[in-house]
Amino acid sequence: MRGFTHLGRVCALVAIAAGGLTVAAPVAAQGSYSPYNETATAALARYVRDLSSNPQDFTTLVAAGRAALEVGDAQAAAGFFARADEVNPKSWQPQAGMGAVFVANGEPHAALPYFTRAQQLGATVANFGADRGLAYDLLGRQADAQADYRTALNGPDHESARARLAL
Known about the structure:
Elements lengths: L1 H16 L22 H14 L4 H13 L3 H14 L5 H12 L3 H13 L4 H14 L3 H11 L5 H9 L1
């Protein structure tokens, strides 16, 4: 429960910080965390507000997890992905999200089983290749990392994949 207490404080601070922000009209492919032209912090605040009225909204839980990762709060992201997995345990998205959480925490060995599970549940490498590629990079498996980055160039996180491949 300690994580959820911390999560509540983080979400409250994010909501306060983004309070006066005006959200623009939806724009296609503005990032993996939001269909709106807004910062990750503003998106996270919006998702937290949405979850207060519908805490079991799977899509919003996953999006909140991605936004939390984007703002650098892996602990909050893990909480959102865990809740999403409880709501829909047959979806690959929470599994890929948890893999990304472990990568963000510098634990690539722990991340890989989550990516494997995501693939077993129907994800393609294009869906999570930028994150798994980084895990492979951290493990010194550059050939595997580059293959995942190239595949992820056709996925939702293509910008991160392009930047990581360039490095």
